[in-house]
Amino acid sequence: MNAEVTGLPDRAPRANGLAGAMRMLAPRWPAIAIATAAIVIYTFASLARPLVIQYALDEGVGTGGDGGSGEKLAWAGGVFFALLLLVYVFQGLSTFLVNRIGQDFLRELRIRLFSHYQRMSLAFFGRENAGRLVARMTSDVATVNDVLNNGFLMVVQSTLTLAGATIILFVLSWQLSLATAIILPPLVIATVIFRVYSERAYGSVRERIADVMIHMQESFSGLRVVQAFAREQRNMERFGAINEKNFWANVNTVRISALFFPFVEWLSAVGIGIILYFGGRLVAGDAVTIGTVTAFVFYLEFIFQPIQNLSQVFDMVQSAGAALNKIFGILAVEPDVPEAVAPVALAAPLAGRIALDDVTFGYNPERPVLRNITTTIEPGQHIVLVGPTGAGKSTLAKLMTRFYDPVQGRVTIDGYDLRTLANSDLRRSVTMVPQEGFLFTGTIRENILFGRPDASPEAVEGACRTLGIDGFVESLPHGYETMVSFRGSRLSAGEKQLVSIARAFLADPPVLILDEATSSLDPATEEQVEEALRKLLKGRTSVVIAHRLSTAEHADRVLVVDDGAIVEDGNHRELLARGGYYSALYRQWTSGRAARSA
Amino acid sequence: MPEEHLDLRAGRDLILRQLRVRWLSLFVAFSAGLSWGLLRLVVPVITGLTIDRAIVHENHGLLVRLVALLVVVVAFQAVFAGTRRYWALRTSYRIEADLRMELYDRVNRLSFDYHDRTATGQLMARGSVDLHEIQGFLVNIPINSAYLLMATGSFFLLLRVNVTLAFLAMAVYPVVTWLSVRFFSQLEPGTERVQVGLASLTSVVEESIAGARLVRAFGREKHEIGRMEKVAGDVHRDSMEVVRLRTVYGPLFYFLPGIGQLVILGYGGWLALNGHMTTGQLVSSLQFLNMLVWPVQSLGEMIASGQRALVSGARVWNVLKEEPTITEAPHARRLPAGGGEIAFNNVTFAYQENRPVLDEFTLDVPAGTSIALVGATGSGKSTVARLLPRFYEPESGAVKIDGTDVRELRLKDLRRNIGIVFEETFLFSDTIRNNIAYGRMDASDEQIERAARLAHAHDFIKNLAEGYDTIVGEQGFSLSGGQRQRIAIARAILMEPRILILDDATSSVDARMEEEIRTALREVMQGRTTLIISHRLSTISLADQVVLVDDGKVAAVGPHADLIRSSHRYREVLGQLEAVAS
Ligand SMILES: Nc1ncnc2c1ncn2[C@@H]1O[C@H](COP(=O)(O)OP(=O)(O)OP(=O)(O)O)[C@@H](O)[C@H]1O
Ligand SMILES: Nc1ncnc2c1ncn2[C@@H]1O[C@H](COP(=O)(O)OP(=O)(O)OP(=O)(O)O)[C@@H](O)[C@H]1O
Ligand SMILES: [Mg+2]
Ligand SMILES: [Mg+2]
Asked: A334: which residues sit within 8 A by CB, 6+ positions away?
């Protein structure tokens, strides 16, 4: 659940996002330079337009006092048109370039971030909230997008406009400029106050909407549990409260903006009033012309708009800065299970001798789950891991596949430390079917192909036939093309496991690890699957975790894991004879049969 | 996934329905908007008058009066602007919140069959993106009406100055309007594609995180990156398509109104030069056009946004119009007192047509006994369990608890009396305490701990860093498989149900602990009924009765010891074919 709800700190590391973004943008400097030049040109062109209006009035129409002139009026018209054209061309050019740079940047950022996720270990995904990782790639990137597309343009344009307009106004008439400047203090103060309040208000909207999304996500994905425990009413009440809070947070932002924007509108009209009043008096004193007064009226907008734009950009840049810091913070996390920089080159495919050498491991290093484990699995051995729940069996399997690295000691395959192998070599050699079955959204065929994407359709069907599940798949409404999804697929629990097993079957690795991969199958099907696996795995190493001891009966070796250590090691008969944990467990397990003879 | 059918008319009706409910605040926003639009026309008029009457004739008194009038008029204008903004935004947010609540309520009540065929992500999109789209459209209605009024008003005011000038200057506006409608309608498919692209980008990220174990296990990182490169590339391509349109059209929306100003400056200037028009009129005409730069292009945007809102409305409606297939009877009863007797009478059921799962399934479970369902993978055991709390409805036949058809019972009462542990454990990303107390929020700490003890979860919970306050990570994956299952069992026990269903609930628990749990449960379930689904001989053998489910029917019933002797199919399913020989 999200920190906003649980009160957990957002542990996402931060990094200097701006510097990172700059580094990524640096190679694009020519485009950035051209875009900036284009913005400068069209900003100046639009700044010049009121000047042309002034000229047209004073010199063309004749409000300047010297009488009008049709020719000058025509000139003014021509220049006005030329300015329009300039704005048209360069505005288009800058829009295109700025967006192009932005989109390229975003694509690169997304792929970099995602590739980074792919280098991360499972520990990372255990630590980080999945929703938040998704948000980094979607909403955070979108925030950056906003700044890139609008922010940059607005900063350059608004600064230039503000500076340009101020200079022009002072040149036109310093007296009138000073008079007009009266409205600037209230404008700036109001803007600053508004920003402070709206920042707070929008911040709380962001939190509230996150609550809404999290609650919806949790109750929609856990809907079967919600209904089974008849929590609908209760959840409605809770969601109602969350939804209402979100509404009021929104209304809060409205209250502020409904005061601020009309005030600014009024202020700008007051500005016009001031210009008319002082301008009128100055015209009377022949200090300025009517054209100048008109130009002032039009320039007012060139002062108002940039100030508000800049304050808005300020916000944008702030939130984009925060987003960038989070994004680059994630990028700065070193993978805790990093791929070897210079992996060993393998001469031949691995045979599959797995050795654990004094391995200690804990998800939290201070609470070891496995302690000083040393054992060797010979190539071609069929090993079964048994032991009480929570003993560390899955953890052991995860170390063998290098989902995690041991805190102490080492795991080797054919003598190579797993940390020295290339990921691709390792994955080709060791495959695991995790305890938590998982189907991707897609067809059954695509799910099986996940094990070996280049396999032919015949190979997929062949794998299913060998497992004896071809009949089941073909009985589905669309056979191999039946759609399943990662939540709410329409298969029974056992059927899902069969698809997962087929996937591993197709991958056909030298070392296969099955973590309770058959736990939901009926014993007959399980036996059938195991039979098929035995054939497939002839000469290969396999490690099977199971609570059903029928599996153990056929194993070359049974390892009993208890409380983070291997406490018994031997084959089924030896362990039974030893009279330890295993034999007790086995007696328990066969009690069903005992009951029959009783 | 099949294409969703969108009924735009239903989308419209949905939006209209909400507007009718909020008509008063909408009316306020609307009137304020129109008043604001009217008053805005006053500023250029006063500017013109001031120049002509006060400035040119150097009439100081009039100058003061006109400027004061301007400030006062605009003060009113500001009040109207604030009123419009407040009520327009507030109403649109209100409608969004109302619809979201309705949607949530509906999704909450829709039965399992609906959720079987609907992705969570899709429902989330309905509750966020689509509602947002509707809100964005509604909020702009008052201001756009005001804009329309302003444009018309400007035209009439220009007409009074000079008919030719009015027509010449305003001639660009139909063009701008036409262009903006064209622009936004061309933009629409592109923006839609970007949206779709972003949605699939999100699901690629989501799945690669949710399925990270598999991606790592099969070394498919490169493949995943390839998928991301493709969707990120698609988003880039579609966004650039949108950018290209913006590049072509965007600057036109400044250029064309500029042409209007040029016309006024040139032709109007010429008129003024020849005394057919005053300077003030010229200035106010220029101001009118300046004022209309925004409003006119917003019409196209409004139309596009309206279309999007209709589509979104139709999508939301598609959820709202769904009726739960499982509903409470009008005079539903409370569950009568009893010990949890269960009866299935000739129950026939199928998830999909032509694939019957249960066929005339008949079973009687006396109150207070424990019964085990046994059967091959996919034989329909879980289905039997799901029919009991009425997650699905049989096609024919009846399911009864303590003699009452479950269809006649109050749903809440029924489900509260059945504790179910699903075969696939779902834990909420919340504390362990809240997960256990999910069905009984008011449970005391002692009760929670007792349930955890019974499920043999207390010991490991106590050893966690923060005990019962430990937050189980994403989908509970920071716990071992058996630990998750035991929390789910504790959650069901805490309900003190009359009937407890354990659907393969201990598959990840070792046989020894399972036995301990079962012993503990036997005590609490004294006088109540337990339904166990399991593939384990040790578990099955402990049940009073075993039911073999095969071919959608009850193939055999009896104590384990009897069945294993008498039923070949039973031995076959349990992989005990050699048992008879021994
Ligand atoms: N991702 C994780 N983060 C923190 N602790 C974990 C994580 N996964 C497992 N643990 C803890 O490590 C211990 C061993 O878990 P593991 O999954 O290896 O048990 P297991 O032997 O496979 O049990 P089961 O038979 O129930 O699957 C447990 O106490 C568990 O709570
Ligand atoms: N939600 C669903 N929609 C469509 N078909 C379904 C759905 N759930 C199950 N089925 C199908 O109905 C049949 C019975 O499923 P059910 O889950 O009852 O089997 P099961 O006996 O519990 O099997 P398992 O031992 O594997 O859990 C299966 O063939 C399965 O594919
Ligand atoms: Mg495990
Ligand atoms: Mg099942």
From this structure: none
Biggest CA pair distance of chain B: 124
A400 residue type, one letter: M
Q: How far is B533 from B547, CA to CA, in rounded Å?
A: 10
| Beta carbons of A73 and B495 less than 8 Å apart | no
**Distance in angstroms between the alpha carbons of the first and the last residue of chain A:** 51
Compute chain A's Rg from CA coordinates.
Answer: 36
Distance of CA A326 to the CA centre of its chain: 11
What would you report as the CA-atom Rg of chain B, rounded to the nearest whole angstrom? 36
A587 interfaces chain B, CB cutoff of 8 Å = no
Q: Which residues surround ligand 4, an ion (CB under 5 A)?
A: A 492-493; B 382, 423
Residue A241: how many other CB atoms lie within 10 Å: 12
- Torsion A138-A140-A143-A147 (CA) sign: negative
The domains found in chain B, sorted by start residue, are: 8-320 (1.20.1560.10), 338-417+544-582 (3.40.50.300)
Q: What is the CATH number of domain A16-331?
A: 1.20.1560.10
Which of B162, B143, B144, B154 lies closest to B43, judged by CA? B154
**CATH 1.20.1560.10 location in chain A:** 16-331
pTM of the model: 0.87
Q: Is the CB of A365 under 6 A from ligand 1?
A: no
Q: Residue B275 CB: number of other CB atoms within 10 A?
A: 8
The ipTM value here is: 0.88
Ligand nearest to the CA of A475: 2
pLDDT in tens, A121-177: 888 887 777 777 888 888 788 888 878 878 888 888 999 999 999 999 999 888 889
Residue identified by tokens 């590739």 is: A115
Sequence-distant (6+) residues with CB within 8 A of B91 are B22, B25, B26, B29, B138, B139
Q: Tell whether domain A354-436+510-597 is in CATH 1.10.10.60.
A: no
Ligand 2 mutation target, pool A223, A473, A491, most atoms within 8 A of CB: A491
DSSP code, position B338: -
Residue with tokens 């050498």: A357
Can you tell me the distance from the alpha carbon of A474 to that of A471, in angstroms, rounded to the nearest whole number? Answer: 5
